[in-house]
Amino acid sequence: MEDWREKIRKICKSRRFELVITAIIIVNSALIGLETYVSHPAISLVQDIILVVFTIEIIMRMIAAKSIRDFFRSGWNVFDLFLVLITYVPESLVPNSSAMLIIRLLRVFRVLRLLRASKEIKLIVTVLLKSMTAMFYNMLLFLVFIYLFGIIGVCLFRMPDPETLSGEEAARYEEFMRVAPNNPNNSSDPYGSLDEAMFSLFRAMTGEDWTDLRYNLVTASKMGIIKTPSAVVTLFHVSWFVIAAFLLLNLVTGAILNNYQKERSRQDVQADEEES
Question: ω before 184 within 30° of 0 (cis)?
């Protein structure tokens, strides 16, 4: 019995076995994409065969593990097992259309098995998961800054309500909307409310049209639509872009790189222990 288990363990650890499973995962992923274009019995048949192969693979990995507990200690094993089991849920057992849609979407997630196609990809995924705590606190810091700048943006740059304007003020506002319309045209005042201001700042952080926000507001300042000086408009947007794009995002990058180095060192030590 132990010899039989050892043979299965060697098969599961072999490079050829990993390549075969990876190739099947790639075929499975391609067929999942193909099913969005055409529906054919042959595709379903191949998918069923692939499901059997995946099931056999999971069973082999269970047998190769030192114990069932050891098998479930690996997040990848749990992930693979879940993706395989969800495929066996018959659609007839789920009369609710919304629930059935969720199950179908979960089956599509079999494409994520490609993440274990190489050790480097698995390492990156592991690092990202271990960086969640650091990224959570970075996110809190980001929310504090975007909330602060959002409030400042609303106080300084909110456009007047056109329905309250009349005479010369209404004419100036119409001229402003002609020469400096919102981008895109169907968007609302970028600093008209706190939630819209925070979204505008998030858009600016990505580098998407943040200079257009500045130019439009400078024009509004020169035309007297808003009372904030042009220099303050420029200082506000440059300051936000520097803080968001160069400081906050780099904190996330630094946390990930730090965990990457730690996890890489840990895996190297573990590999050396297994060889010895």
Answer: yes
What is the residue-wise DSSP string for 186-229? T---TTSSHHHHHHHHHHHHTTSSHHHHHHHHHHHHHTTSS-S-
- What CATH number belongs to 133-258? 1.10.287
What is the spatial distance between Cα 141 and Cα 148, in angstroms, rounded to a whole number?
A: 11
How far lies 189's CA from each of 143, 196, 243, in Å? 21, 8, 23
Rounded to two decimals, the pTM is: 0.63
C-alpha span between 236 and 41 (Å, rounded): 60
DSSP state, residue 113: G
Q: Which residues of the chain have pLDDT under 50?
A: none
pLDDT value for 104: 64
Distance CA 176, CA 111 (A): 50
The predicted structure's pLDDT at residue 178? 84
Task: Give CA–CA dist 118/100, Å, rounded.
Answer: 32
Please identify which residue in the block is written with the tokens 């060889």.
275
Q: What CATH number does domain 2-117 carry, 1.10.10.10, 1.20.120.350, 3.90.550.10, 3.50.50.60? A: 1.20.120.350
pLDDT at 1: 55
What span, in angstroms and rounded, lies between the C-alpha atoms of 38 and 27? 16
Helices (H), the chain: 2-13, 15-34, 41-64, 68-73, 75-87, 97-108, 119-130, 132-157, 167-179, 194-205, 210-222, 230-241, 249-275
